[in-house]
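Format notes (please read before filing issues)

Several people have asked whether sequences and structure tokens are stored in separate files. They are not. Every record keeps both together, in the order shown below: the sequence lines, then the token lines. Line labels are part of the format and must not be stripped during preprocessing.
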Amino acid sequence: MYNEKLFLTPQEILDKEFKVDAKGYRPQEVDKFLDMVIRDYTEFASIIKKLQNENKMLSDDNAKLKAEYRKLKNIIDSANESSASSSSKSNFNNVDLLKRISNLEKVVFGREE
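Then the structure lines:
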């Protein structure tokens, strides 16, 4: 992923040869600086690899959790549908029973409402 954006690898930096001019840089200073650059590149490569692995692991966990969420949502939805249909039946039965009780009370107690 990030490798396409990098121009140099730590090994390429290490193997780089510079031409020496009469008024050129001191080779020891250049080598010392390049050694620091190599350490940084190596550390960056390590960090990138670690983060890519962590990102993959988190993406996998996220996919598993999404699948589990969909499964549980389907279970809840189906349970709600079945309880809603039985609830409407019981509501119908309850209303019917209340009407019958009311009619019986009218007959037994002689109340007219």
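For reference, the curators noted about this record: The helical segments are 10-15, 27-109. The longest helix spans residues 27-109.
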